[in-house]
Every structure is written in structure tokens, then in C-alpha cells.
């Protein structure tokens, strides 16, 4: 078997996987019931795993209570949930858009790093600007750099056929090392520190805190509005604009899109760049809203979690919004779970992974909950 | 509590916490935020947590809770969750948590904090820093390693280039140099240059693979004793040593006595440089509970046994008596000031 055949096979499998994540947005079952059940089953399995590791039943009950309280049970819980959701939703929107255009972008993490890094640099070096210019400019620079970085993978695919899965993974690694290296450069490293940590972003480039007048510990920031605007914009872009139609058409059937006069290579590069821009914005909003500086690993796996968010949200902007809030809630609630019930926070990672397993295997969910679905099922699931 | 015996150490911990948290409402609550690497890292975080456990054991009214940081971005969020959680004292573990702890302490002046590995200048009234003269302990380890090395090359590497890590590496190199100047030997140290403050770093505190790869590189360059200063990363180095044999490669543990915390590979540890975070953490909890807490600094040294050298474990018989006596003499020299650690 030649390398070409291999890649072709990978491509086909990838396309069918993505078809499943994007297909039939009008189908209520696929869009709502499967994800809902996936979450429920994952939580049940999480409880079983706790049982298997000899956690007793009252503690399991307390864990789930703590999970609920820690995610939605107080103002602080909501603040933490939404704070965690903001970058997940932003990066998830980009990934979902990529899925719809037939691109499996694994590079959100790297694009997020690049966007965040650019935001830090723009933040401390343009500190003479007033906030009304400085903050939007910082975010825009984050978007542009993220978009440019993702476009590399798009251009490689459009011109040489290099598979975006491979190239984005490699670009991730490059971005991590670039970050580590840059953080040691004197012009970027904070004065008086020997460890890799960047200078701080001045107030004029920081997304304002929304709730600190109630309690200084509430971290929710104006990135919330950025997130909501992005959701609306991507919805418009995908379903109301010409270019969005081209994205979707290329994703559903690249040959047909090509015959219809859509330039495949242009669509690929543009879709990658848009996805990267959103990931870059996620990084920039983390930097300007939460962290205020860059350090190694500031991306914290958000770009990878966002893949899960995009899959769970069925690549639909509104779905991604809810999926992101759910994952944000799991993260915030997971901390409470560890504090209040002493159950390891790693369990949250397991639950998140299980959700994705069940999303990726809708047949399994249908088999577990046969009564939740119409008798005759859908054609593609029967196949 | 009979079920405790049946279950693994980790869930045992959880169960102990549960038992703790159902006690009387007047209980004193000590909360800890760990650094990345996890509470079961056989070193840094685990030692600090042991301090809380010891306090629980000594004093029935103390209860403890912890929160693991998965990434550096969790520090603030974790502190936030604990501020919500009615803790009498919040103990943060690790230099990297310095900024987050400071911010939380300033936003919550009524809350008592203590941080391991960070000294604030100027001090913050509600934060007590715990720092350690680990270069003293590592100096002894360097002296010992130089005396034990057959190839004349020893190595070290760190997690991230931050003072609490490089203190070990500085002390180690100075210890080797001291041996060289005393004995006229030329034992070489790979992985750290105390003058330029540059050396080998994995860039993280959690990849066991990196620990293995870095130890392999040092071994390939001729090192037969390696001191990894990177929390659980060093466990990867220990696995390598166990595979290729301790005749070829020995490991010097850090933070805890790693023959105890990493029993699987106990026989590869020549010794461990102890950083007794457990004892200072317990001390801080007692101070806080007894009402004598105030912001400032506690420093662990060889003299007050805040740092030290672990027993030689499997190498008890192979370390020459003469060398053991010399190490003791060097220790006494450091304590009475006749030997300067930072030369």
C-alpha cells in the first residue's frame, strides 16, 4: 500500500467522522438527545469508577452535590464556570467551523498559544495607548496571529496536500517550544525573575472584571461579551453568509463544491485562518482577562478540550456555547468536588473523556437508552 | 474505619479526609493547594501534604483538605475555591504560586495564608513564607556523589529554572567542587553551571518521560550519579536506573526520602536531599491554631533539621565508612559556618 492510499483512507474516515459531528443540524435526536444522554451516561460511569476505587456511596453522593454546587450553586460558582467556559467556547467555535468545512484542526492549542503570546507582547509594548484602543487592538493582534499560524497548515494542505491533522500537531509542538524560548528572552521576561514568565499586561489592555465590585475574588471578565458576540458572528457566518455556505458545502462534498465553482484551496486556507483566529482570540482573552502574563503551559490544554466542546456541541455555534458552559462547569465543580468530598479532580477528566466516547459512538448511546429514540432510527446509524 | 485498610493509599487519603470533615464544627481546617505534579508525586507536593497529615494525627481537632493544580492557570481558581471553603489557614505549595497567593492574600486580608518556597519582600501581614536552605543539603549530596562516582562525572537537571530548584543544583555543584578542592580530584558536574545560572531543564514538573530521557542523556555523557530536581519527573530517571542497574547509574532523590516514597525503585537512590516541608507545614498549622500566627518567614536549615540528607538506603554498606564520616564532618562544618555553601 502506498502512502497516498493510506492518506486517502485516513481522509475518508476523517470525513465520515466529521459528517457525524455536523450532519443534520435539524435532527433533534442527534443534536440534543445524544449529547444529553452522553453526559448522563458519563456521569453514571464516573460514579461507577468512584465505586471501583473504593469510594463509598455517601461520598459519591457528596461529590455530585459538590459538583453541582461548585458549578452553578453560587455567584462565585457561576463566575468560575463562565470564566472557564470563555476560552473553551471561543476555541470550540473555530474548531466546529473547521469540522463543517471538512478540516480536522488539532492545532487550536498552538494557535491559542500564539494568540496569547501576541496579546502579551502587544499588551506590554503598546502601553502608551488608551484602553479604548489598546484593548481591542490587543485582542485583534491575538486574532491575527492565531489566524496566520493556522493558515500555515491551511496553505500546506491547499498547496501540497499535507494533512492538517499532522501539520497542526507539529505546529502545536513548535508553538510550545517557541513560547518556552521567547519567555527566556530579556525583552519579554519579567525583570528580576529567572524563571520563564513574561512581563505583565498593563491595565489598559486587560478585559475589565465584571463582578469585582461585589467581591474581588469573582474573576468573571468582559471576555463573556466577546464570547457571545463570537457565537452570534459565527452563526451568521456559517448559516447566513456566502463564505459560510462555501465552508459547509466543501465539508459535505468537496467535489460538488469544486464543480459549483468554489475554490477548494481558498476555502481551506480561509477556514483554517478563521478557526485559528478564534483560537488566537481564546488565547488573547485568557491572557487579558485571567492571567495577565504568559508562562509555560498557560494554554493548559484548552485547545484540546475545545475539540471535545466542538464535538459535543455538534459543531453548531449555539451547541458549542452550551457545551463550553458545561465543560466550564465541570471544571469549576470538579475543584469543589475535591475540596468538599476529597475526590480527585482527575475524575473530571475521565468524565469529560467519557462524554466524548459516547458522542463519538451514538449507536452505543442508542443501545443504552432505546426508549429515547424513534423506533426506526436514522439511516446512517443503521448502516 | 476498618475499610481503610482495604483500600489504596490514595483513596485512603480521601477517606481520611471524609472522616476528618465530619468531625465537630469547631475543628480547625487546614487547606492546601498543591503545585502541578499531583499530591502523590513521591516528593514535593506529597511531603508538603504529609505536614498536614502529621498535624491531623497529632491534633484531633485539625482537619485537612487539598486541591491539586492541574496547570499553572489553576492556581487562582483553586485559591478561590478554598477561600469559599471556610479554611482557617490556606497553604499554597510552590514558588510558582507566589503571585496568585499574594493577590489572594491582599484581596482577603482576614484569611491566613502560608506558602512553601516563597519569601515576600516586603512581607505580607497575613502570609507566612516557608523557605529552605536546600543548597546546604544538596552540598552534602554533591560531596557524597563526588566521592562515590566511578566515572568522575555526575549530573543534575531541574524542572523549571526557579530559585527553589536551582538552590539544589547550586549546592550540588558546590559540594562536588568542595570535594575536588579537598581531595585534588576533578569530578565533573553536568547539567548546571552555577556561574551563568544555566543548565538542563525539562520545562515541567510532571513528565516522567522527560525524566527518563534527561537521565539517559546524562548517562550517555558519562554520568553515573544523577540528581533530578523536578518532582515526579525524577521517578522516570529512577526507572531508567533500575533498568540499567545501579552499578551504571545511581539517583539522588530530592524533597522526601525517595526510598520511602518510591518503594518500587528504592534500591536506586544513593540518598535523598531532604527538604522537610512536612515539618514546617505542621509547625505553621500549630502556630495558626494556637493563635501565634503572623506574617513573615520560616527558614529550614541543616541546623534546625529543615533540610538534610536521607539515609543511604540500599547503599548503606557500599558507601565507605570514611566517606560517611567526611559527610558528617562537612555537615558540622556547614552548621558552624566554617564551610561556605555558596563558593
TrEMBL record, chain A:
| A Pfam family the protein falls into | BPD_transp_2
Keywords from the named record: Cell membrane, Membrane, Transmembrane, Transmembrane helix
Q: Kindly give the InterPro entries that the UniProt entry links to this protein.
A: ABC_transp_permease (IPR001851)
**Topology relative to the membrane, per the entry?**
Multi-pass membrane protein
Instruction: Mark the transmembrane ranges.
Output: 32-52, 84-103, 112-133, 139-158, 165-183, 220-239, 260-282, 347-369
PANTHER family xrefs? ABC TRANSPORTER, PERMEASE PROTEIN (PTHR47089), GUANOSINE ABC TRANSPORTER PERMEASE PROTEIN NUPP (PTHR47089:SF1)
What is the name attached to this protein's record?
Answer: ABC transporter permease
Identify the species of origin.
Maritimibacter dapengensis
From TrEMBL, chain B:
Q: Which residues form the ABC transporter substrate-binding protein PnrA-like domain?
A: 32-336
Q: What are the UniProt keywords, alphabetically?
A: Cell membrane, Lipoprotein, Membrane, Signal
Give the signal peptide range. Answer: 1-29
Q: Where in the cell is it found?
A: Cell membrane
Q: Which Pfam families match?
A: Bmp (PF02608)
Q: Which PROSITE patterns match?
A: PROKAR_LIPOPROTEIN
Q: Using the record for this protein, list the coiled-coil segments as residue ranges, or answer none.
A: none
Tell me what this protein is called: BMP family ABC transporter substrate-binding protein
The domain of life for this entry's organism is Bacteria
Location (main, coarse): membrane
Q: Where are the transmembrane segments?
A: none
Query: Does this UniProt record's set of keywords contain Membrane?
Result: yes
Amino acid at each position: 500500500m502506498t502512502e497516498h492510499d493510506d492518506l486517502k483512507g485516513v481522509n475518508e474516515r476523517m470525513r465520515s467522522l466529521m459528517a457525524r459531528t455536523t450532519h443534520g443540524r435539524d435532527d433533534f435526536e442527534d443534536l440534543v438527545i445524544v449529547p444529553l444522554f452522553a453526559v448522563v451516561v458519563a456521569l453514571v460511569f464516573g460514579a461507577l469508577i468512584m465505586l471501583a476505587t473504593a469510594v463509598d456511596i455517601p461520598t459519591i453522593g457528596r461529590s455530585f452535590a459538590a459538583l453541582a454546587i461548585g458549578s452553578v450553586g453560587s455567584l462565585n460558582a457561576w463566575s468560575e464556570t463562565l470564566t472557564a467556559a470563555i476560552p473553551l467556547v471561543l476555541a470550540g467555535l473555530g474548531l466546529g467551523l473547521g469540522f463543517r468545512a471538512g478540516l480536522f484542526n488539532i492545532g487550536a492549542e498552538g494557535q491559542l498559544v500564539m494568540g496569547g503570546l501576541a496579546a502579551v507582547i502587544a499588551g506590554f509594548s503598546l502601553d502608551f495607548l488608551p484602553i479604548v484602543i489598546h484593548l481591542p487592538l490587543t485582542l485583534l493582534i491575538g486574532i491575527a496571529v492565531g489566524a496566520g499560524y493556522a493558515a500555515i497548515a491551511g496553505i500546506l494542505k491547499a498547496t501540497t496536500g499535507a494533512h492538517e491533522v499532522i501539520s497542526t500537531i507539529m505546529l502545536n509542538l513548535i508553538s510550545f517550544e517557541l513560547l518556552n524560548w521567547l519567555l527566556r528572552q530579556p525583552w519579554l521576561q519579567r525583570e528580576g525573575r529567572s524563571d520563564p514568565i513574561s512581563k505583565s499586561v498593563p491595565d489598559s489592555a486587560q478585559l475589565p472584571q465584571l463582578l469585582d465590585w461585589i467581591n474581588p475574588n469573582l474573576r468573571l471578565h468582559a471576555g463573556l461579551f466577546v464570547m457571545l458576540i463570537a457565537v452570534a458572528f459565527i452563526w451568521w457566518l456559517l448559516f447566513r453568509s456566502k463564505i459560510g455556505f462555501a465552508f459547509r458545502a466543501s465539508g459535505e462534498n468537496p467535489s460538488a463544491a469544486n464543480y459549483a465553482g468554489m475554490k477548494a484551496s481558498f476555502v481551506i486556507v480561509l477556514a483554517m485562518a478563521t478557526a485559528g483566529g478564534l483560537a488566537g482570540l481564546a488565547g488573547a482573552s485568557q491572557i487579558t482577562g485571567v492571567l495577565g502574563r504568559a508562562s509555560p503551559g498557560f494554554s493548559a490544554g484548552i485547545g484540546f478540550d475545545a475539540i471535545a466542546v466542538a464535538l459535543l456541541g455538534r459543531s453548531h455555534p449555539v451547541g458549542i456555547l452550551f457545551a463550553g458552559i458545561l465543560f466550564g462547569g465541570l471544571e469549576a465543580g470538579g475543584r469543589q468536588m475535591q475540596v468538599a468530598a476529597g475526590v480527585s479532580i482527575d475524575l473530571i477528566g475521565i468524565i469529560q473523556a467519557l462524554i466524548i466516547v459516547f458522542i463519538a459512538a451514538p449507536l452505543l448511546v442508542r443501545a443504552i437508552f432505546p426508549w429515547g429514540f424513534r423506533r426506526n432510527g436514522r439511516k446512517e446509524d443503521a448502516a | 474505619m476498618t475499610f481503610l485498610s482495604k483500600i489504596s493509599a490514595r483513596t485512603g487519603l480521601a477517606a481520611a479526609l471524609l472522616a476528618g470533615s465530619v468531625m465537630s464544627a469547631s475543628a480547625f481546617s487546614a487547606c492546601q493547594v498543591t503545585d502541578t505534579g499531583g499530591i502523590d508525586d513521591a516528593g514535593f507536593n506529597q511531603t508538603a501534604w504529609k505536614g498536614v497529615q502529621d498535624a491531623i494525627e497529632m491534633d484531633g481537632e485539625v482537619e485537612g483538605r487539598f486541591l491539586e493544580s492541574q496547570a499553572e492557570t489553576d492556581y487562582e481558581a483553586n485559591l478561590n475555591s478554598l477561600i469559599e471553603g471556610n479554611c482557617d489557614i490556606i497553604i499554597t505549595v510552590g514558588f510558582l504560586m507566589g503571585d496568585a497567593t499574594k493577590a489572594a492574600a491582599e484581596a482577603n486580608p482576614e484569611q491566613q495564608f502560608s506558602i512553601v518556597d516563597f519569601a515576600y519582600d516586603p512581607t505580607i501581614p497575613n502570609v507566612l513564607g516557608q523557605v529552605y536552605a536546600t543548597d546546604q543539603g544538596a552540598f552534602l549530596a554533591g560531596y557524597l556523589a563526588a566521592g562515590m562516582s566511578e566515572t568522575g562525572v555526575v549530573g543534575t537537571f531541574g524542572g523549571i529554572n526557579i530559585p527553589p530548584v536551582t538552590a539544589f543544583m547550586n549546592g550540588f555543584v558546590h559540594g562536588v567542587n568542595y570535594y575536588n578542592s579537598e581531595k585534588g580530584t576533578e569530578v565533573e558536574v553536568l547539567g548546571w553551571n552555577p556561574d551563568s545560572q544555566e543548565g538542563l531543564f525539562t520545562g515541567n514538573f510532571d513528565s516522567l518521560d522527560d525524566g527518563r530521557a534527561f537521565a539517559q542523556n546524562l548517562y550517555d555523557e558519562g554520568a553515573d550519579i544523577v540528581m533530578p530536581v523536578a518532582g515526579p519527573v525524577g521517578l522516570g530517571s529512577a526507572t531508567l536506573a533500575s533498568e540499567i542497574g545501579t552499578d551504571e547509574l545511581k539517583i539522588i532523590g530530592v524533597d522526601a526520602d525517595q526510598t520511602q516514597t518510591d518503594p518500587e525503585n528504592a534500591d536506586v537512590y544513593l540518598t535523598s536531599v531532604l527538604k522537610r516541608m512536612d515539618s514546617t507545614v505542621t509547625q505553621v498549622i500549630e502556630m495558626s491554631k494556637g493563635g501565634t500566627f503572623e506574617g513573615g518567614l520560616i527558614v529550614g536549615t541543616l541546623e534546625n533539621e529543615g533540610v538534610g540528607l536521607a539515609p543511604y538506603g540500599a547503599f548503606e554498606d557500599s558507601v565507605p565508612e570514611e566517606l560517611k564520616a567526611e559527610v558528617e564532618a562537612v555537615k558540622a562544618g556547614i552548621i558552624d559556618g566554617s564551610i561556605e555553601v555558596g563558593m
